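Sequence, please.
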């Protein structure tokens, strides 16, 4: 704001001076008459003093209708800017508060995790966490790490020793793999049993291909799965490719005679219908089918993707069978292999093969305790 004084002989003249200098928007703040004082009183006429002001801001707003609009807009912009900066500030504040809250939660969860710690030894704790991450049963993980806890494990020698003890314990738990042998050391009649859809027929095809093509053995196939028309066709398709016979039995009593016809074969693999672990009738039939043959091997085929509770129920249903080996399929479809060790630990039955894909005959191998142990210990290389 500009404030100026103007003096003139008359009020009119002074105001004109103001308008000339400051323009028509000048504000007249005060008008006063000035009477000459002292000796000048005699020679000088009274004059008028005008105090005028010009408000630049006011001037802008009141310029012209167009300018007025522009000015209103710029004033609104100013307000919006102000609001925006206030909002920015609020957002900033909110972020800081949120950060604080989450850091408090983090600390809390860290503490909670701390409370979950089972071992003084950080190496043991890490091994334990990896086993649990692989869905090994807590009681089994504790069994594997039993009596190893020691706080003084920062020495690299101790770390190596700890890991090698744990590694060997798991290797021992997995045990020696039990392969199928096409020689006189084992019964040559082999049943494949297990829940529906786990991969029994595909596994038989893989094993048959191995013995026919690689070991040049005489292999015969029998299917007792006549529940589904497609099941017989599935096995026949593989048999045709390998140019070997398939016998189909429609009831359990036909089995001994069928096997008798194949007595000069090196191996006879018998496919069975998948059983739902909830269907007790089907298990009675299976028990009866198995009872028709004395000299036999049984392979229980299980999927590595089965949930722990379901696996428990499946194992419970097959518990009437005292002697069997285990094949795990669909290892490629899971990221945690703990179930394999859990099943081995709970059943104490030998582990044989793992299947890791749909390709016949390639996607199968004898279980490797070393590979399996490394996988179960997870990030052991990072220690
Ligand atoms: N990803 C994966 N799929 C597999 C594996 N083994 C078998 N399969 C697939 O699982 C499905 C069922 O396989 P089957 O061999 O018919 O299973 P099954 O146990 O004979 O089934 P049922 O006779 O109906 O009880 C098929 O699509 C197979 O290709 C495996 O190791 N990994
Ligand atoms: Mg089948």
């Amino acid at each position: 704001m500009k404030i100026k004084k103007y003096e003139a002989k008359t009020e009119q003249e002074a105001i004109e001076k103001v308008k000339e200098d400051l323009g028509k928007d000048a504000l007249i703040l005060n008008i006063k008459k000035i009477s000459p004082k002292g000796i000048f009183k005699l020679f000088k006429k009274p004059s008028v003093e005008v105090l005028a002001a010009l408000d630049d801001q006011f001037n802008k707003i009141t310029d012209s209708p167009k300018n007025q609009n522009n000015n209103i807009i710029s004033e609104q912009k100013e307000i919006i800017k102000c609001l925006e900066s206030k909002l920015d500030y609020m957002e900033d504040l909110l972020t800081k508060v949120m950060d604080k809250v989450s850091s408090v939660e983090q600390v809390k969860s860290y503490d909670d995790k701390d409370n979950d710690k089972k071992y003084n030894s950080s190496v043991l704790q890490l091994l334990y966490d990896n086993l649990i991450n692989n869905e090994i049963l807590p009681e089994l993980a504790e069994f594997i790490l039993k009596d190893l806890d020691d706080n003084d494990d920062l020495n690299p020698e101790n770390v190596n020793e700890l890991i090698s003890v744990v590694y060997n314990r798991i290797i021992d738990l997995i045990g020696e793999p039990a392969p199928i042998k096409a020689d006189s050391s084992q019964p040559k009649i082999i049943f494949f049993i297990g829940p529906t859809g786990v991969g029994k027929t595909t596994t038989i095809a893989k094993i048959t291909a191995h013995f026919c093509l690689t070991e040049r053995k005489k292999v015969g196939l029998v299917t007792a799965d006549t529940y589904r028309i497609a099941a017989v066709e599935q096995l026949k398709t593989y048999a045709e490719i390998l140019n070997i016979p398939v016998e189909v039995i429609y009831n359990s009593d036909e089995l001994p005679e069928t096997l008798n016809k194949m007595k000069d074969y090196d191996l006879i693999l018998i496919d069975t219908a998948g059983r739902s672990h909830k269907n007790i009738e089907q298990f009675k039939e299976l028990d009866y089918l198995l009872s028709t043959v004395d000299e036999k091997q049984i392979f229980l085929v299980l999927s590595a993707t089965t949930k722990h509770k379901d696996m428990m129920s499946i194992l419970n249903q097959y518990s009437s069978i005292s002697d069997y080996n285990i094949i795990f399929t669909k290892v490629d479809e899971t990221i945690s292999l703990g179930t394999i060790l859990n099943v081995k630990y709970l059943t104490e039955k030998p582990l044989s093969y793992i299947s890791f894909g749909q390709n016949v005959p390639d996607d199968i191998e004898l279980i490797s305790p070393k590979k399996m142990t490394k996988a179960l210990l997870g990030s052991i290389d990072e220690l």
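The mean pLDDT is 83.
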